[in-house]
């Protein structure tokens, strides 16, 4: 289980290299990291807790870019909205890492602490404890789906004469640029509105 | 630009192989498809419109599994909810293809037709034309984020003694199994609620 014995610099370089690989090819391997850094594969394993440890280092790196101070500034709806925007921006910088992180358990201490603060925010606001994780996870699904959408091409629908789609054409013309932001804001407003409804039921 | 000149069977085999590769490794290449099928790379190109054509074949294949008849039945909110559930299930079977499809323009005729129907549903329901794409895209962000979440491990947060997160522990215990579904339903209800609000403003 080799705990890291070396300076942070080395783990940082391994993390940076793993992220570069995932950005380029959607995946990484420890031998690939070693090759890029010009070291033996075994040396990489001296610095990290295996492949899973590298995944957690990437998670920690990306989550450092989320402004978690948003979670302390009050009322819950403004805080959640600010957190969601910052969360989306952090992952939009590395869209291809999203599937990797979403399908691997969260172990990074700093990331667990950020969840603790998000849960605390909603409990303090008066949400029923059973409503908290569905709201946070629903928000994350939206945030990460939207982060992927930010990496989409400007023209996402290529309409074709041989497939007439006049209503789609009208709807696309009506929204124009800022399509991804308008979608995120609409869905986020919906989720926060749902939260308000739940809260009104919980605290009569 | 070689238009397909061969029976559907061959394009179907290319699509199946590309999907297998993406399911396994998050990516595919035309030479890899050729190797798996035991043919020359050039032969693959005879059947499809290049790499982008294969991406569109994968999109078409996955979207065939969406029950688009949901878009024709009943009030818009029930229709959107049924479509979203079917859409999520189709992509949950191939989570690793999601980033690839979300970052490549939609050209597949059958998929464009499905968008046309979704837009038509919302226009008929009375939505302002500028509200339609943000709602559909917000729904897709949620659907695809949630499809990735369905591929997450049962225990997504591995709490650690050395990082006390008592509120997170309580919130996780309160939701239990069905976490991903509860999150999707909460966010979907929020989005549909937002739609109702928009509609009430549009049709006074």
UniProtKB/TrEMBL annotation, chains A, B:
<dbReference type="Pfam" id="PF02909">
    <property type="entry name" value="TetR_C_1"/>
</dbReference>
<protein>
    <submittedName>
        <fullName>TetR/AcrR family transcriptional regulator</fullName>
    </submittedName>
</protein>
<dbReference type="GO" id="GO:0000976">
    <property type="term" value="F:transcription cis-regulatory region binding"/>
</dbReference>
<dbReference type="InterPro" id="IPR009057">
    <property type="entry name" value="Homeodomain-like_sf"/>
</dbReference>
<keyword id="KW-0805">Transcription regulation</keyword>
<dbReference type="GO" id="GO:0003700">
    <property type="term" value="F:DNA-binding transcription factor activity"/>
</dbReference>
<dbReference type="InterPro" id="IPR001647">
    <property type="entry name" value="HTH_TetR"/>
</dbReference>
<dbReference type="InterPro" id="IPR050109">
    <property type="entry name" value="HTH-type_TetR-like_transc_reg"/>
</dbReference>
<dbReference type="GO" id="GO:0045892">
    <property type="term" value="P:negative regulation of DNA-templated transcription"/>
</dbReference>
<keyword id="KW-0804">Transcription</keyword>
<dbReference type="InterPro" id="IPR004111">
    <property type="entry name" value="Repressor_TetR_C"/>
</dbReference>
<feature type="DNA-binding region" description="H-T-H motif">
    <location>
        <begin position="29"/>
        <end position="48"/>
    </location>
</feature>
<dbReference type="InterPro" id="IPR036271">
    <property type="entry name" value="Tet_transcr_reg_TetR-rel_C_sf"/>
</dbReference>
<feature type="domain" description="HTH tetR-type">
    <location>
        <begin position="8"/>
        <end position="66"/>
    </location>
</feature>
<keyword id="KW-0238">DNA-binding</keyword>
């Amino acid at each position: 289980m080799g705990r890291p014995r070396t300076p942070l610099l080395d783990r940082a370089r391994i993390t940076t290299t793993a992220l570069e690989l995932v950005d380029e090819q959607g995946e990484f391997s420890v031998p690939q990291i070693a090759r890029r850094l010009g070291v033996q594969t075994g040396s990489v394993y001296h610095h990290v807790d295996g492949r899973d440890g590298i995944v957690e280092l990437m998670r920690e790196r990306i989550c450092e870019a989320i402004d978690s101070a948003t979670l302390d500034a009050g009322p819950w709806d403004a805080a959640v909205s600010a957190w969601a925007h910052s969360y989306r921006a952090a992952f939009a910088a590395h869209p291809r890492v999203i599937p990797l992180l979403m399908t691997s358990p969260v172990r990074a201490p700093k990331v667990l602490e950020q969840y603790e603060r998000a849960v605390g925010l909603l409990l303090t606001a008066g949400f029923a404890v059973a409503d908290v994780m569905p709201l946070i996870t629903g928000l994350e699904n939206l945030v990460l789906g939207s982060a992927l959408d930010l990496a989409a091409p400007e023209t996402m629908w290529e309409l074709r004469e041989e497939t007439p789609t006049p209503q789609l054409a009208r709807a696309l013309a009506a929204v124009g640029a800022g399509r991804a932001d308008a979608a995120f804001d609409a869905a986020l407003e919906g989720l926060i509105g749902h939260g308000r409804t739940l809260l009104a039921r919980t605290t009569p």
